């Protein structure tokens, strides 16, 4: 259902590159439950934003239900967000 391969998300801060996610591999199959845990700044929110199609990776591949998200346009991602993905926010900015 969810397959990440060599997923990276990098941000430019001034003249430096911050590697929020660096070569993440993950497979979550249908009916599996997962927990994402880590210290502050470890990339949890960045990963959830990508999984929820709110952000896109810098590189790597994210396959959702057999379809590469890199081939999806904004309307397709919005449709999936509204029909297939649920969000529970602890705070408005998460």
Automatic annotation (TrEMBL):
Pfam families: ABC_tran. SUPFAM superfamilies: P-loop containing nucleoside triphosphate hydrolases. InterPro entries: ABC_transporter-like_ATP-bd, P-loop_NTPase. One of its GO terms (molecular function) is ATP binding. Residues 21-93 form the ABC transporter domain. This is ABC transporter domain-containing protein. The lineage of its organism: unclassified sequences, metagenomes, ecological metagenomes.
